Amino acid sequence: xxxxxxxxxxxxxxxxxxxxxxxxxxxxxxxxxxxxxxxxxxxxxxxxxxxxxxxxxxxxxxxxxxxxxxxxxxxxxxxxxxxxxxxxxxxxxxxxxxxxxxxxxxxxxxxxxxxxxxxxxxxxxxxxxxxxxxxxxxxxxxxxxxxxxxxxxxxxxxxxxxxxxxxxxxxxxxxxxxxxxxxxxxxxxxxxxxxxxxxxxxxxxxxxxxxxxxxxxxxxxxxxxxxxxxxxxxxxxxxxxxxxxxxxxxxxxxxxxxxxxxxxxxxxxxxxxxxxxxxxxxxxxxxxxxxxxxxxxxxxxxxxxxxxxxxxxxxxxxxxxxxxxxxxxxxxxxxxxxxxxxxxxxxxxxxxxxxxxxxxxxxxxxxxxxxxxxxxxxxxxxxxxxxxxxxxxxxxxxxxxxxxxxxxxxxxxxxxxxxxxxxxxxxxxxxxxxxxxxxxxxxxxxxxxxxxxxxxxxxxxxxxxxxxxxxxxxxxxxxxxxxxxxxxxxxxxxxxxxxxxxxx
Length: 504
Ligand code: NAD
Hints:
This protein has 504 residues and is an alpha/beta fold. The protein has helices at 15-22, 61-76, 78-81, 84-100, 102-113, 117-137, 150-153, 179-193, 207-219, 233-242, 255-265, 290-302, 322-334, 354-370, 401-404, 422-429, 445-454, 487-492, and strands at 27-29, 32-34, 41-45, 52-57, 145-146, 158-166, 169-173, 196-200, 226-228, 248-252, 271-275, 280-284, 312-318, 373-376, 391-394, 411-417, 434-435, 439-441, 461-462, 477-478, 481-482, 495-503.
């Protein structure tokens, strides 16, 4: 396949990225790159230009069998005999290689996903931090000593302690919206815990996982510790989640597929962690600082073109500040620069695919028909690429589909409310099957904390939105997921506790 030197709306990519795109990409199984058993491939294209980027090997159930077997051998072999310090050293080495190749990873994320450069750069540096953070946690993986049980101590001295052990072989299934970051969020703690893994990236964004695979080999991880099988969710993903020799699945993606994972996992009762969809509430009270809330609420919805699980997309605005706030949000959203993410001036990219852009447009059209008023955007851009501009809807009532369903696109739905009663407001905010994120905008400490304690979400921020960080646990209430990622809880997800009692 020939890749032109500057094919991306006239923006150049580095020679390293050109060389990467020109390669024949395989599956990483047992430390080696190989084609799938059926010889299948999948292609990936640039969402901003629709140009073909690369063709990569695509695996199926037989390749998943091979990858799981390799991960099982590695788990029972050299990997489990490494000292904690050696495991940490390998993860730190991987962090340094990722740091060295940050420009390549940034460009791959921009090209494969369409995200703007500032977001791609941030996600790659967060991944470096994530590896370092979890490598740093390894020496802190420790059990406790505890009181031995009475039936043993009745006639003898005894000692009881606990060990924290790796869960085993873990399947990591990730989405396309922040490809390398959703992967590293799982990979770093899984490796720190001592697990071995089979990674199934999203079909839309196979590239950064493959680039990371090359660094894993270069860092010197034993073969089989990390296996990477690109392929369709319905075959490769389903085979991984149903596999009897997989001890756990860690999944990030839609609630609909999360349900399928749970069903598939029932066969061997493997453990399951789920980071799923959201429809997060944003509550703006009459005493909010509107100069802060205008840009803040706009970014809550439009960051990453709304293709962001934490996106605040149900906006509740008190009547007293409704018009003034809408004016500020519209003014801010008009300032986005749409275009190719390689352009450093661009801060708003395309959606991932034509099919997804069509889904988002169908939501907008339905909202219009249901009586919502479009005050900004609302039309797909007439240019190459899957560009839907920031779209702001007012006069939205809580029963409209646009206010209830996850759209995963740049669509803000604003509902005007009259009350100042925190219980009534919280009940409105909680009227959703999801509970991932949320935010409250007010100058009153009391109102803020009363609302925070009543909103049923895994993350609620005050006068900001989606405040994630390496050491802050993140995850969903209700149908937004099971378990937490980030921080110590993210590591605990890959550990299990063994109680040991010794009669002395
Ligand atoms: P998706 O559920 O369609 O796909 C996610 C992954 O699952 C992909 O790798 C896909 O190939 C695989 N898959 C599909 N069908 C499968 C099956 N039957 N068995 C096993 N695997 C299967 O999600 P998406 O469209 O890639 O991503 C968007 C969704 O992800 C949104 O709902 C978003 O909210 C969610 N998300 C959540 C978080 C979070 O942290 N909570 C983060 C990012 C994205």
